[in-house]
Design a protein that fits this description.
With 394 residues, the chain is an alpha/beta fold. It folds into three domains: 79 residues, no CATH class; 171 residues, Medium-chain alcohol dehydrogenases, catalytic domain (Quinone Oxidoreductase, Chain A, domain 1), CATH 3.90.180; 106 residues, NAD(P)-binding Rossmann-like Domain (Rossmann fold). Helix content is 30%, strand content 25%. The strands form four sheets. Strands 5, 6, 7, 8, 9, 15 and 16 form a seven-stranded mixed β-sheet that branches. Helix 1 packs across helix 3 and helix 7 crosses helix 8. The structure holds NADP nicotinamide-adenine-dinucleotide phosphate. The site of NADP nicotinamide-adenine-dinucleotide phosphate has 27 residues, from helix 4, helix 7 and helix 8.
């Protein structure tokens, strides 16, 4: 039986060749007629059109995971040799407790709604927020409130994970800002699923963001660690009116928020004093810190120097203590405060990353199967920068 497909929308010969050779490899296809469309489409559009045309032509029998411009024949072949899968791996927890409550399971792969994009997650992270939610480690005054919010007897949201990087695999019919093949970065906070999963559906527009094109300068692992620490630091430093030429002290400078804060303050042209253990001095200096103080050996509040901003990036100092070294108009900011960063914050971070001014510090990387070990490590409270879960091997 001869199947003949006509694919339109390709305006460059390499795309034609890829599609043609790929189609010829599919069972029963013995003839392919690739015709040219108008040549106004961009290369990316061509790929997009080619992909949807192929999906239609193949009647959804095969899953096409990616389409690139310069694939080799062998890579192209792999698109068509994978049978369509409806299952994916994810990490779930159905009770609060130690890292052992986390389980890698197979669940149904989601399908994007008309306003959503389906992202194949390449990397996510273990934030201190993830470990806190998992263990239900909340201050006594907030405990009941937080448990009512996140699940009184068991977690309402069974998949943790607050940030990710990945590639758009499919888009709903109303999506206009993203297309198949886009590399993206974002946070699923406020969605029903977190990012400890192989696939995630995310609306292209949300009230509090946030999805953006991945900075080209960052690897997938680095990009996954950009949103949470970076957006928190940027939001709080902006609130404290960070400006050029200021003197900024960052307390707890070696964590995820702290390591982002150093780079953001330096990018703005401030002078940075980093407070951390002496074992982390090299790290914070490599990120731009001008001076360092070991909190275990020296009380920062006894410094003679005065600061425009004291930023508590780890929630372990206080405004009353910071006041002693603040200038008259100086400001105190802390991660203990509620924050509400949005799309504009992530976009600013991506811009700074592309300008070479911001690069998330990666402490350790674990595979998805190592999620329990990764949580055990973060539980110790000593992580430097970020802990990444690499879902697709780089
Ligand atoms: N408000 C928000 O929206 C928001 C968002 C994100 C995070 N947070 C909160 O911000 C905090 C920091 O999170 P993170 O992920 O950046 O860091 P983290 O992983 O919780 O902190 C680890 C770092 O903190 C340092 N540290 C621990 N105790 C310290 C102390 N007493 N003094 C100074 N440094 C200390 C450790 O360095 P040493 O080993 O040298 O001690 C380590 O490098 C967490 O409490 C998190 O829940 C809040």
């Amino acid at each position: 039986m001869v199947h003949k497909y006509q694919i339109t929308g390709m305006t460059c010969t390499s795309c034609e060749a890829i599609v043609k050779s790929a189609l010829l490899m599919v069972n029963n296809v013995t003839a392919v007629d690739v015709s040219k469309a108008d040549n106004s489409a961009t290369i990316t559009m061509e790929k997009h059109i080619a992909l949807s045309a192929l999906q239609k032509a193949l009647n959804s029998k095969y899953q096409i995971s990616a389409i690139y411009h310069s694939e080799t024949f062998e890579q192209t072949k792999s698109w068509f040799t994978t049978e369509k899968t409806t299952k994916m791996k994810a990490v779930t927890y159905t009770q609060y407790g130690p890292p052992g409550v986390l389980n890698v399971v197979d669940i149904e792969k989601p399908t994007p709604k008309s306003n959503e994009v389906l992202v194949k997650i390449h990397a996510t992270t273990v934030t201190s927020g993830d470990t806190r939610l998992r263990s239900s480690d909340f201050p006594p005054v907030a405990w009941l409130f937080v448990r009512l919010m996140y699940g009184l007897f068991k977690p309402k949201k069974e998949i943790l994970g607050h940030e990710f990087s990945g590639i758009v695999e499919a888009v709903g019919k109303d999506v206009t800002s993203y297309k198949v093949g886009d590399e993206v970065v974002g946070t699923p906070t406020t969605l029903t699923s977190g990012s400890y999963t192989e696939y995630l559906c995310i609306p292209e527009n949300r009230k509090k963001g946030v999805l953006a094109l991945k900075p080209k300068t960052l690897s997938m692992n680095e990009a996954a660690a950009l949103p949470v620490g970076g957006m928190t630091a940027l939001f709080l430093l902006q609130k404290a009116k960070l400006n050029t030429g200021q003197n900024v002290l960052i307390y707890g400078a070696s964590g995820s928020v702290g390591s982002s804060a150093i780079q953001l303050a330096k990018a703005k042209g401030a002078s940075v004093t980093a407070v951390c253990s002496s074992s982390n001095f090299d790290m914070v200096k490599s990120l731009g810190a001008d001076a360092t103080i070991d909190y275990k050996r020296q009380d920062y509040s006894l410094l003679d120097q005065k600061f425009d901003i004291v930023f508590d990036a780890v929630g372990k100092t206080s405004k009353s203590k910071a006041k002693k070294i603040l200038k008259k108009e100086g400001r105190f900011a802390s991660v203990a405060a509620l924050t509400s960063p949005g799309q504009e914050h992530l976009e600013e971070l991506c811009k700074l990353a592309d300008e070479g001014k911001l690069k998330p510090f990666i402490n350790k990387t674990f595979p998805l199967s190592g999620i329990v070990e990764a949580h055990e490590y973060v539980d110790k409270g000593r992580k430097r920068g970020n802990v990444v879960i690499e879902i697709v091997k780089q």
